[in-house]
């Protein structure tokens, strides 16, 4: 119930105007977002890298409505990649990209061209790009663009959402040699016709997808904070004899940081997904939807004078 309220709020521009008037420095935003600018992104990446954690940086922004905004997003990624390279933070840091931020909803071809420029800059900087998964209406287009990008940039990562009924099939298609695939539960409000609705069904689907990816030839990126799924992933990695450079765990910045450290200390590759930028509204609403306890924290931050 609470989840659907927050996911509905994520798409409301009125709520966005209201909530976004809270400065980025407010506690709840600061917990999940590295800061507003590229310097904040670099500072956070440095701290995480010094702790032995890999990073995937996301320049916040989605559902871009104009070609100018899409080009500006591309330029932000080009700047970020060049700064990461100069700071010696590649390959520890890669980038995550939402195709909707580079114009997917305006023109698929433009989104492909801008994503391709970002992949080329990432290659030049010695790192990689992963295409985030968005709502189900974009999945076909995203997977088509992924396959085009992989012709020139085979290390481009995919994201698959276990809650979508189609995803086991997509896992089979993508579990090929060299294919980097992030598996997450899925963060959007989706209808029953396309997505499992109960937490139990989503978890079961996650395990079926994990089995396909872990037994396949690709590089699974296990993106979850769920202790049970993390334990199952560790078990499957042992079963399929995967070494620490043959799969990785991924967690979000600000979520279960002690688990991030524990997994890294146990010898696993751990990547932290770090969002930055001033367009944090949709991202934050999805994080609140995931955990009721965050809502109290959010209320306190909104009413705090600091
Ligand atoms: C690295 C990474 C990348 C992602 N990329 C995408 C993407 O491209 N597309 C997409 O749709 N989704 C993405 N997601 C989000 C994902 O789909 C889930 O919505 C999110 O991870 C919550 O699911 P969970 O697997 O952690 O399990 P849950 O069952 O939601 O959570 C398990 C436990 O983790 C902790 N936890 C989870 N979320 C939070 C939170 N927000 N705050 C505090 N504690 C929390 C709680 O202890 C909770 O009990 C990504 C997630 C990660 C970790």
TrEMBL record:
Residues 41-297 form the Proline dehydrogenase domain. Its EC number is 1.5.5.2. The keyword Flavoprotein applies. It comes from the Bacteria. The gene is putA_3. Pathway: Amino-acid degradation; L-proline degradation into L-glutamate; L-glutamate from L-proline: step 1/2. Its cofactor is FAD. The keyword Flavoprotein applies. It is an enzyme of class 1 (oxidoreductase). This is proline dehydrogenase. The lineage of its organism: Bacteria, Bacillati, Actinomycetota, Actinomycetes, Micromonosporales. Keywords: FAD, Flavoprotein, Nucleotide-binding, Oxidoreductase, Proline metabolism. Gene3D superfamilies: 3.20.20.220. It catalyses: L-proline + a quinone = (S)-1-pyrroline-5-carboxylate + a quinol + H(+).
């Amino acid at each position: 119930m609470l989840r659907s309220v927050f996911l509905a709020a994520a798409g409301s521009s009125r709520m966005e105007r209201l909530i976004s008037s809270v400065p980025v420095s407010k506690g709840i935003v600061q917990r999940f977002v590295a800061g507003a600018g590229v310097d904040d992104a670099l500072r956070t990446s440095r701290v995480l890298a010094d702790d032995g954690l890999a990073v995937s940086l996301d320049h916040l922004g989605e559902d871009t409505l104009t070609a100018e905004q899409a080009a500006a997003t591309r330029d932000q990624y080009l700047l970020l990649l060049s700064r990461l390279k100069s700071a010696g933070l590649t390959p520890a840091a890669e980038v995550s990209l939402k195709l909707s931020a580079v114009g997917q909803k305006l023109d698929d071809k433009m989104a492909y061209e801008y994503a391709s420029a970002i992949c080329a800059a990432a290659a030049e900087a010695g790192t990689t790009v992963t295409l985030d998964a968005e709502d189900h209406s974009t999945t076909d287009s995203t997977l088509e663009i992924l396959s085009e990008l992989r012709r020139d940039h085979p290390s481009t990562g995919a994201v698959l959402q276990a809650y979508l009924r189609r995803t086991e099939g997509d896992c089979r298609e993508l579990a090929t040699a060299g294919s980097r695939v992030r598996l997450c539960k899925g963060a959007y409000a989706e209808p029953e016709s396309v997505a499992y609705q109960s937490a139990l069904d989503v978890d079961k689907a996650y395990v079926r997808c994990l089995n396909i990816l872990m037994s396949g030839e690709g590089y699974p990126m296990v993106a979850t904070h769920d202790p049970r799924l993390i334990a199952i992933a560790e078990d499957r990695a042992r079963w399929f004899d995967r070494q620490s450079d043959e799969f990785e765990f991924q967690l979000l910045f600000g979520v279960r940081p002690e688990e991030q450290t524990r997994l890294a200390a146990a010898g696993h590759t751990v990547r932290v997904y770090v969002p930055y930028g001033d367009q944090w509204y949709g991202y934050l609403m999805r994080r609140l939807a995931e955990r009721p306890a965050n809502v109290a924290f959010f209320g306190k931050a909104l009413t705090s004078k600091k």
